[in-house]
Design brief:
469 residues, 4 domains, mainly alpha, 6 strands, flat
């Protein structure tokens, strides 16, 4: 159906609003909206689903639109037909097919439980998904949407806050994706100029603690900056929706480590980000695994495991290191490339950025530098993922072994701290009348056990020649 003009749409809405006056006031449907400042009572009309416009600023599809190449070409006219088709595609894609089917059945059988909300000129604030589903109905009599109409003086700031409040008061609505929520927070901060504490209240972040809520909003803005830095690491910019595979827990961990590295070494900090990005690009996202990734992980743990891969292994070094005319032949590659030296004695530096390009790029074939060999992309991705997974297991063993070696030292230091606290605790209660004979007796018995343990440790230190007699 051809799109009606803005003037026609405004005239249509005004006509429907005037038609309400033909009914007694008690039959007018109205809805109370959580408007900034005070609640707003708005009239509800019934309008064709094809007559309204989908919201180009809906924060449920904001990150998807940011990534879309076609959207960039039509975003200057977001209410035009082409732009509206793109928005409709992403609105539909924001829900799983089963969820859309369930919504369709519910709307057909029961109708709308609550009206949507739109501006005076027909742009939906919410109910975009409902509009998309209703447009697909076969029965023309059912292709209508109930919507509350906002006054013409509604500002962009008020509309953003209204969308957020409508979202927050509906517990059964689909949550914003991680990146859409972060972009919403950014808009509220930079465009709407809300303070961190105000944003925290609107999003109900730590509502019981204002300072904690404001600090969390500030951190989330920094997490968005981190994502944008990660997007720029590969040769082809990574879509922001790529990071919806993560949660706040993973991002907080990476931000914490990265900030610590930045304080002492910019290069190491960048190497860490590249190692992290390669890890999640292969599909490894659990926090307990991400914690084991560091700036040296790819060279120390991933590469040795990759060299063991049945298909990629013989060319692993050429795949992962800087190409050069005198590059050493990868281990095990004699059968493929002829009889050349395998070992150069030089320190191996993995070109993690190149691997990220292989994994996230659009090419379906990976060409091995300095060779005639090439692999299907999925073969390289699977091999790198397997090598990272195996490397994480290997690093876990190494950490456990290091912990074993350091365990005696840590235990003695811990015992020393405990004894210091015991002296302080005794000093603070020794003159207290409630520190009675029974407690004193228990303390004496505990000290005797401690003395026996100390003698056993002293004997072990002498036996293993750690201290003299």
């Amino acid at each position: 159906m051809p799109q009606i003009t803005q003037q026609q749409r405004i005239a249509r809405i005004e006509q429907l609003l005037k038609a309400l006056n033909t009914d007694p006031p008690e039959k007018h449907e109205t809805v109370r909206l959580p408007w900034p400042g005070q609640d707003l009572l708005c009239p509800v009309i019934r309008i064709g689903a094809d007559e309204v416009l989908l919201n180009p600023r809906s924060h449920r599809v904001r990150s998807q639109l940011e990534d879309d190449v076609e959207w960039k070409e039509v975003s200057a006219d977001p209410l035009g037909q082409t732009a509206q088709r793109i928005i409709e595609r992403f609105v539909r894609g924001a829900r799983k097919p089963d969820d859309l089917a369930g919504l369709r059945d519910s709307l057909l059988k029961e109708g709308q439980a609550e009206p949507g909300v739109m501006t005076f000129d027909g742009v939906l604030v919410n109910a975009n998904t409902r509009a998309v589903v209703i447009r697909e109905f076969d029965d023309p009599a059912k292709k209508y949407l109930r919507v509350a109409v906002l006054p013409s003086h509604a500002s962009p700031d008020e509309l953003s806050l209204l969308e957020l409040r409508l979202q927050m008061q509906k517990p059964l609505k689909v949550d914003y994706s991680l990146t859409n929520e972060l972009l919403f927070i950014e808009e509220l901060s930079s465009e709407r100029e809300l303070k961190d504490g105000q944003i925290a209240k609107e999003l109900r972040i730590f509502p019981e603690n204002d300072k904690k809520g404001a600090a969390e909003v500030n951190l989330r803005l920094k997490l968005l900056d981190l994502i944008r830095n990660l997007q720029l690491i590969p040769s082809q910019r990574i879509p922001i929706t790529f990071f919806d595979r993560l949660g706040y827990e993973q991002l907080r961990e990476v931000y914490r480590i990265h900030q610590g590295l930045l304080a002492r070494d910019d290069v190491e900090a960048q190497n860490y980000l590249e190692a992290f990005l390669l890890t999640i690009a292969t599909g490894i996202t659990p926090v307990h695994k991400i914690r084991k990734i560091d700036a040296d992980f790819m060279a120390s743990y991933m590469l040795p495991q990759l060299e063991e891969d049945e298909m990629v292994g013989p060319l692993a070094l050429q795949l992962t290191t800087e190409p050069s005319s005198n590059a050493p032949t990868p281990k095990g590659a004699k059968a493929l490339l002829g009889d050349r030296e395998n070992e150069s004695g030089d320190e191996v530096r993995v070109d993690v950025k190149r691997l990220i390009d292989f994994v996230t790029g659009s090419e379906n074939t990976v060409v091995v530098p300095n060779s005639v060999f090439r692999f299907p992309k999925e073969v390289v991705v699977d091999a790198v993922k397997s090598a990272i997974s195996s490397g994480l297991v290997e690093k876990g063993r190494d950490v456990r072994d290091e912990n074993k070696l350091d365990a005696p030292i840590g235990a003695v230091k811990g015992a020393t701290n405990s004894m210091t606290r015991a002296v302080e605790a005794l000093t603070s209660v020794a003159s207290d009348p409630e520190f009675d004979a029974k407690r004193r007796k228990s303390l004496e018995a505990a000290f005797k056990r401690l003395s026996r343990t100390f003698k056993a440790l002293d004997a072990a230190l002498i036996k293993y020649e750690i201290k003299g007699k």
